[in-house]
Design brief:
The chain has helices spanning 29-32, 55-69, 77-90, 163-175, 219-232, 243-248, 279-292, 307-312; strands at residues 7-10, 13-16, 35-36, 39-44, 49-53, 97-105, 119-127, 137-146, 180-184, 190-192, 197-202, 205-208, 236-238, 251-256, 260-267, 270-271, 302-304. With 313 residues, the chain is α+β, with helices and mostly antiparallel strands. The strands form two sheets. Strands 8, 9, 10, 11, 12, 13, 14, 15 and 16 form a nine-stranded mixed sheet that branches. Strands 1, 2, 3, 4, 5, 6, 7 and 17 form an eight-stranded antiparallel sheet that branches. Strand 1 and strand 2 form a beta hairpin. Bound molecules: 4'-deoxy-4'-aminopyridoxal-5'-phosphate. The site of 4'-deoxy-4'-aminopyridoxal-5'-phosphate has 14 residues, from helix 5.
Amino acid sequence: MQQTSRYVWWNGELVAWQEAKVHLTILGWSTLGAVFEGIKAYWNEEHEELYGLQFAEHYRRFLYSMRFQRLEPRWSAEDLAAASAELLRANQVREDSYVRPMAYFGDTTWFSTGAESGTHCFIWTTPFRSVLGSGAAVRACVSTWTRLGDNMMSPRIKCVSNYQNSRMALIEALRHGYDFPILLNDRGKVAEGPASCLFIVRDGVAITPGITSGILESVTRRTILKMCREELAIPADERDVDRSELYVADEILFCGTGAEVQAVSEVDGYKVGTGAIGPVTARIERAFHDMVRGRSPHNHYRTAIYPKVHAAT
Ligand code: PMP
């Protein structure tokens, strides 16, 4: 594995990248019930500050993902948020970065049914390139794969095994020349992308499938809903979305920690609006970008990683 940082945080300690090793025989089964988070930290050049994004929200979900998988929570959400900030500082991160916590059963060669399998946890950081402000739009298709149902393997949590479903859909979409798939749920309604939620815009209303539609309870989706309603005066609705609405929507956007806010230019060959980024998407994207980079007053969402440096500027 290519080294991306000096340290990882592993079971309560900072460990040098080269020392963070497990035995070959834990491959496979140990990750069957593993859960993870995707968190971002954005660098603001002007402030010389790195902003950790929504640590509290992500670690709250991390803990309920663990609970669902019967992984033993050995650290609180606050402990893990503090560990993430400490790790970013130890790695001297001064660029946009992912923070990737994972909890897994460490002492198993078979099904892991509970605490006897030993809960282990690590966090690592790795750089990423933001698409915010790039003006790029992506081409999507409706997948032939159905999104996991809540009575199969709940999509509500971030379990590694769930991503086999996303992976099949993504492989299919890429092979057919698209950038991303949109998955329908087991009721035939629109669910989400392979690692992102989505909004459609119809007649000025931003509409997103509800949290019982076979989606991950996305932090970004919730934040965008709140921004639309409380700051941007964009009417927002959570309801079932039909497949055919994808073909007649004025605008569509994917959203998520990894996806950020990404406009969709076409679905199954139907152009979305004019094919360029629409006005509602543009406003949401700008507000989201300002929030993550520390350019708007949303301090409750952000953790300043180098607060002394920031205070001095
Ligand atoms: N759905 C899935 C399946 C995902 O993996 C993600 C990325 N975490 C999302 C939605 C978006 O969630 P969030 O906004 O919390 O990153």
